[in-house]
Amino acid sequence: MPDAAGFDVAALRWGVIGYGWVARDYAVPGMLAAGGRLAAVADPDPESRRHAATLGATGHADWAALLHDPEVEAVYVATPNHLHRAAVEACCAARKPVLCEKPMAATLADAEAMGDAVRAAGIRYGTAFDQRHHPAHAAMRDAVARGAVGTVTAVRITYACWVDAGWAGDNWRADPARAGGGALMDLAPHGLDLVDAILGGPVVEVAAMTQRRVQAYAVDDGALLIGRTASGVLVQMHVAYNCPEALPRRRLEVVGTTGALVAERTMGQTPGGTLRRICGRLGLDVPVEVPDADASPFARQMAAFARWLRRGGDMFSLDRDLHTMRLLDKAYATCR
Known about the structure:
Number of strands: 14
Shape: globular
Order of helices and strands: EHEHEHEHEHEHEHHEEEEEEEHH
Low-confidence stretches: 1-8
Radius of gyration: 19 Å
Largest sheet: 8 strands, mixed
Strand order of the largest sheet: 8-9-10-7-11-12-13-14
Structural class: alpha/beta
């Protein structure tokens, strides 16, 4: 089946470890839209396994049986953060390529251990940064590469939402032991990865301030992060769990010497939003064409992963993902 970029990609047979709402509502539909097949699911919740069975998948209460299933070619890990390391290490032992949800792990030590296991096993590993696959963000990357804003001077990101203590029943994202942090740990990785994707190079210096101001839990419910790339581009990011959903709360700007690119309502799990260019000389504000604008970022991500397994390339990078984890660790360290 042709994928979103026009390549004929052999159908990838997926196993999913952790069949929560992200996997059920976004990742698995993305796998199917990309031409893949859901072969098996591992989740302790019987209802989750029953739902997976309606898609033709075999349900397992734990991941050991899934990893021994010869039908499973690749594994998507969508457990709470503190379980990522054990799941990925089990995939390494089974020699299964793995796409793991962000952040890599709840701690930098766990992420580094995962990296060691991946290298020792010689498997393919990627972190699921779906935002770099959003059609508008891909169009923004291409526009920057064409010189649409001249020399880039700054990137500004707002990525905020409302996540109260009782969200989704058991809100593990509000538990420092399971999440490893709050809004900064959950939302900032997307922004850090997007800077790399759009500019073609990572943030190398970082500092942050966090707050626990609104939500009644033990992790940060908001944070400001500042950073700088090796070439001198300044990065500013506001992430939050304390922003009402009806407010403007998702905005990505790339500012340069001849103009700016502004994406609104693009950061998130769904396609859509707007992308505009503002002329630095005349102030003209015009839409930017977004190819494949209605495509799911998850479907594009799953197609890219399948293509990467077959053909290689630089769309996924263990070293890049470990660098992002080190930046997060440093950002939290500056808050103490």
